[in-house]
Amino acid sequence: MNYLVLGAGGTGGALGAFLSRGGKAVTLIARGEHLSAIRERGLRIIGPSDSFTAAPIAASDMEHYDGKPDVILVCVKGYSLEETVPFLRRITDDHTVVIPILNLYGTGERLQQQLPETLVTDGCIYVASEIRSPGCILMRGSILRVVFGPRLPEENRPALRQIETELNECGIQGILSENIQRDTMKKFSYISPQCACGIYYNITAGAMQHPGQYRDCFMDLVGEIVLLAKAMGITFDIDPVQYNLKIIDALDPKMTTSLQRDLERGGPSEIEGLVFAVLQMGDRCGAALPKYRQIAAELKRRGLGGPV
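Above: the chain's sequence. Below: its structure in token form.
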């Protein structure tokens, strides 16, 4: 299958490089110095136990890409998603599979409304990675897992199983979910609390790896996502608190979330979708979320978002 990775940052860059090393036909959509470096030298991956350079690897910007991919992995930040829609409309048709891999919950359903002729699944990724320098992705952990799937049984098609197989052939743990709303909420129950706790206290993952107020805060936030999910009719197949503690404990202690790094740079961020949207979902389904409300009020006071 012909893959297009839309957004070659920490998430998309890692996926694209592994797909390329696995022999798949893949093109990266990037921009600026990062795009120039990938074209000149390939894409370097530096991991804790696996480092390599994917070269040569096809790369383009949105303006000059003229292909018709079979699979599009959308790996942009939530605040950039809307600007990709005209591009996606131009390069997709009824055979294309679009898999959004964003931190925000419910992205696939929203994007499907804007691409009615194309199958848009939901999806999420487990990876700790970031752009270290133009043309270089730093992975702070060995996990690279993509979970994806259609929201409705009638949307399933053989291509989805083929995508799962090809991801696994490339060293990416691909999982075609039978309950993608549950599984994307499971991921959200990890990333949203880590972001909220990390921003509130200005801490790295290491601070949440030891007993104390930071770990307790993370656990409380995960617990509130569990209550939110229950109010939305979503039942988890694991204990999210213990599941997410294992993920936190396996991270590089120096790791921060991309949201924290975006805020430090003073640019746009996903804080609305990762923190404030939780309260909006809670209000719609009647879930009381006191810890999220406390943190959101403080973040609003700091001028980082709102309303509460």
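The CA atoms of residues 208 and 215 lie 4 Å apart.
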